[in-house]
Amino acid sequence: MDTSIDFLGVTFPNPLVLCSGYLGITASTWDNLARKGAGGITTKSIWLNEHKGHNNPVILANEDFICNAVGVPDAGIEKAKEEFKEYLKRNNGVPLIVNIIGGKADDFVAITEAVNELKPQLIEVNISCPNVEDEHGKPFATSCPDAARVTKMVKSVTDIPIIIKLSPNVENIQEIAQAVVEAGADGITAINTYGPGLVIDIDSAQPILANKVGGVSGPGIKPLAVKKVFDIAAAVDVPIIGMGGVKTGRDAIEFMMAGATLVGIGSALYYRGEAAFKIVLDEMVEWCEASGVKSFSEIVKKTHSVLDSSSSL
Amino acid sequence: MKTFIFDCDFQVQPGQFVNVWLPRIDEKPMSVAFADGKELHLTIADVGPFSRAMHELKVGDQVGLRGPYGKAFTFEPNQSIAMVGGGFGSAPLYFTAFHAVQAGCTIDFIIGARREDLLIYRERVEKLKGATLHVSTDDGSVGHKGYNVEILQKLMNEKNYDMIMTCGPEVMMAAVARIADEKKVPAQISLERYMKCGFGLCGNCCVDKTGDAICTKGPVVPLEYVKQVEEFGKYHRDDLGKKHKF
Ligand SMILES: Cc1cc2nc3c(=O)[nH]c(=O)nc-3n(C[C@H](O)[C@H](O)[C@H](O)COP(=O)(O)OP(=O)(O)OC[C@H]3O[C@@H](n4cnc5c(N)ncnc54)[C@H](O)[C@@H]3O)c2cc1C
Ligand SMILES: Cc1cc2nc3c(=O)[nH]c(=O)nc-3n(C[C@H](O)[C@H](O)[C@H](O)COP(=O)(O)O)c2cc1C
User: Fold this and answer.
1) Do A31 and B209 touch (CB under 8 A)?
2) Residue A144 catalytic?
3) Which position among A19, A67, A129, A288 bears the catalytic label?
4) Is residue A313 part of a domain?
5) Which of B30, B63, B246 to mutate to test the pocket of ligand 1 (most atoms within 8 A of CB)?
6) Contact call for B211 and A50, based on CB within 8 A
């Protein structure tokens, strides 16, 4: 089976892309994961300037969920550009999605301008962090006007397709999706982590994460994530990168049926190691072959077509 | 440098590490210096905020331990092994030697420090039957005056080892690796990189060019692997991913 798939005019050798923030700091690491079967690489979120993360512990992982407060540590865009250049010059056929983050709308613009000349295949905009210009410090991702404003500003300074990564921690994800698409978003990634959540060590009665609370992901959030992807796909007509607790080939197919064209591999790296890309893809292919599916694009939004598409869930 | 002894039932192989947690302060990786399923020992140098806080603990205080993590040193019964340690690197090597002599291995345990009072694990190693201690100090206050790597070089002119193991400052380990490679003796090297999660997700300890997370691929890796690690002996990355030369 030909596993390749088109996303916004970019050919991905397979639909499984690395989720932002997992392992993704250096060109060598991206190359390593590309060799191990990743269909696309999303970088960790990149800031305009150096940004300190939280103290350790930063990630808690168990059979059911992952809870993280890494705090998006980063050396800033100038340093990141060296890694992008290094990766892109090898031209290995595995597209690079540069994920950017900022505390102010202007930061997103400055980073995009810096990234432009390197021509990564796609730009993913992480709008889940607090807007420092908002009096309550609410994340851009929780307000339609803020999310739309960032989208419009980024879009105005680049020809590279841009994908907006949405937070699930809102009641109106369909409205947010519509707002960013109207503002020019070419695609949507969903979802970022749920929460925040709290994990307590009962021997000391202390929260374990140094930041006390952290975003929740992994198998425990999968049904919630699939629902968000379904809702977004019902509301807007742009391609989606779906993620949240994908562990098996069946999980990935489920996300595609809900509306995703590409599927994020993140927590699967904990459950199945670096071989996750290859194992999950093999499982997808096996299922497709047994089910008479000839190309992954056939199953995108399948569940919408078996339901009356105007019905909401 | 202090050695802490915890009541802890972890089953640990020598060379593995644990993440040590002081609530509301930090959590840091530390090589296990000894463990027998009842006790777990850690030897910790006072170098910064976390290790300072460790040094201020009193008997009876609790810490959080996660692990053990990573790959261990490995040996076969009855091997002849040279171990080269510097700083707290002597601690996991002592733990390895403790097990290796029980498997009939003979060991040349070579440690170096700037001055005599910085040599750790001398007494413990001297008590191991099957292990011979060799020391060097920069000032010659005890043992060979100069580097421990010079002792290794000299011993290797006299005898053949089945295996070389090293843990300590990377410049020292790079010299050991070079010698092992020249003489075609298998070697194991314990790499230290800035680790956060400890189980291969955060990516902070990934090395160029292999791109592997050393917390899971290592910390102990074979010589053949280190030869693919372009940054070995040259640079490492900090908590933000910036490169620093050794
Ligand atoms: C696998 C492994 C085993 C180790 N075993 C021991 C040991 O047995 N005994 C011992 O004293 N030290 C050991 N270390 C080093 C120890 O983790 C650091 O010295 C400690 O984290 C310093 O923290 P700090 O807050 O006291 O100092 P800081 O001021 O934070 O740092 C001092 C120095 O330690 C390094 N460091 C800080 N945090 C880390 C980290 N998370 N990972 C790696 N290096 C770090 C810094 O780069 C800096 O050079 C080990 C490190 C690793 C990766
Ligand atoms: C340790 C960790 C770090 C993350 N860092 C980022 C990040 O820097 N930027 C971002 O957009 N999302 C980040 N995420 C969110 C993931 O990309 C993903 O959206 C989410 O975790 C759902 O996938 P999963 O259930 O497979 O983990 C991070 C998640 C984890 C667990």
Assistant:
1) yes
2) no
3) A129
4) no
5) B30
6) no
**Which structural domain, as residue segments, surrounds residue B47?**
2-69
**What is the per-residue pLDDT for A310?**
59
Do residues B92 and B71 lie in contact, with contact meaning Cβ atoms separated by under 8 Å? Answer: no
Distance, CA B69 to ligand 2 centroid (Å)? Answer: 23
**Spacing of C-alpha B237 from chain mean position:** 19
Please tell me whether residue A35 adopts helix, strand or coil conformation: helix
Interval A127-145 mean pLDDT: 91
Note whether B121 and B214 are same-domain residues: yes
Q: How many domains does chain A have?
A: 1
Ligand nearest the Cα atom of residue A58? 2
Q: In whole angstroms, what is the distance from residue B19 CA to residue A107 CA? A: 36
Q: What residues contact A146, with CB distance under 8 A and at least 6 apart?
A: A105, A127, A131, A134, A138, A140
Q: Does B25 touch chain A (CB under 8 A)?
A: yes
Q: Whose CA is nearest to atom 13 of ligand 1?
A: B30
Q: What ipTM is given for this predicted complex?
A: 0.94
Surface of B (156-215) touching A: CB under 8 A: 196-197, 199-204, 206-213
Instruction: Report whether A238 contacts A187 (CB < 8 A).
Output: yes
The residues that bridge with B131 in the sheet, in sequence order, are B107
Domain coverage including residue A253: 5-306
pLDDT average per 10 residues of sequence, chain B (246 residues): 96 98 98 98 96 97 97 98 95 97 98 85 94 94 94 96 98 98 98 98 97 98 98 97 96
Assign A132 a pLDDT band (cuts: 50, 70, 90): confident
pTM, rounded to two decimals: 0.96
